[in-house]
Amino acid sequence: MLYSLKLHSIAYFVIASLCTHFLLNLFVDNRVKNEYPVLVWKSSIVPDRDRLIICYDKKYECLITRNETKNNVSVFMFYGSHLDNNDFPLPRNGEIWALFHEESPRNYAPILFREMQGLFNITATFSTNSDFPLTLQYLPNINSIIDKTYFKSTKEKNNFIKTKNIASVLFIQSDCDTPIERDNFISKLMEYIKIDSYGACLHNQDFSKEISTIYPLDLYNPVFLEFISQYKFIIAFENSICEDYITEKLWRPLMVGSVPIYLGSPSVKAWLPNKKSAILVDDFDSAKSLADFIKVVNSNDTLYDLFLEHKLNGIIENDDLIDKFGFGLNNEHENAITAFECFVCKKIHHGRYKVKEGSVFDCPYPKNSSWNGFWDAGRYQARALKILMEKNVKFSNATYEKLWKKLFYKEN
Q1: Which one, of 280, 257, 270, lies nearest residue 145 by Cα?
Q2: How far is 39 from 50, CA to CA, in rounded Å?
Q3: GO CC terms for this protein (predicted)?
């Protein structure tokens, strides 16, 4: 009897739950149909569940989902690193396409070119040419630049060099094949100055057991930051040279009070806290001349301290860095993705989503010739995508591959 009652209770609960779920979905769908624009993510970067977002002091509301069968779809949201030809919702019936791509374009070559970029009405990338720039996405907060949590005085660092037998320069990297030819330059630099190199690239030092469990999973871990703060200089080479592409490779040394030796974005000077916050590789004509300068700075404490105004005196002279921090991100958002969702939601409510003129990305051909083919292929892949998209019908990967290769061989 008790068993029968239990079964009856369970059955009742299941039926009631299903009815409630059905009625709730019906209610939500009806409300969405009547009230909220729907933003559909074509990527697993967000959870597969519906979310109602309320943005900018409750002025704008939109439904976020990965279910493209919803009513009232206004926007399809794409994540650059997950772009797939099969994901493009064709035929396109007036929906807005929004692109979120915080990485360098080296993992998806077509996005380098205007033909591909022009498919999107709204963009969020590291470039300040984007509708929603993410240039400072890797800087946790402005205060971290002047904060002294991990800071070591010049005297302490000099002592570490003697007592711990460490180099004055640190290099940590495990991504060894890059368009920027990072390892080739650093290998030359090593001929003139001692560099402690952890990670897989140019490896000559081993992490402690504790740090081995952290690297490369959590590069803002306090133990890791404490470790790198011992070094006077940290090599900060991006994996690609693109305008405005600035990552944690620059910000992490500045946060802990080391001097970055930087190669990457040509516009980096516009983002430094002070004029002398980093040593810029582009200011030198060779690895030897750079090494000679590092040696001079390393041997002169007064000169070295000039690079640490942000730590020693809590000074950030660059007002633009302070004013532009966040580019619309604010404390109501957990991260750049949720901030972009609200940005798009607001755009849809206002009906402002004209495609920007000019290229979003400015990434010159790589110094590493082995990557030139990647850039070349991307150019023709972008052209092929534009041609196929203009037909506004679904296409196969085989059709796409055949077309871009045809375009390539026609001109090469």
Answers
A1: 257
A2: 10
A3: Golgi cisterna membrane
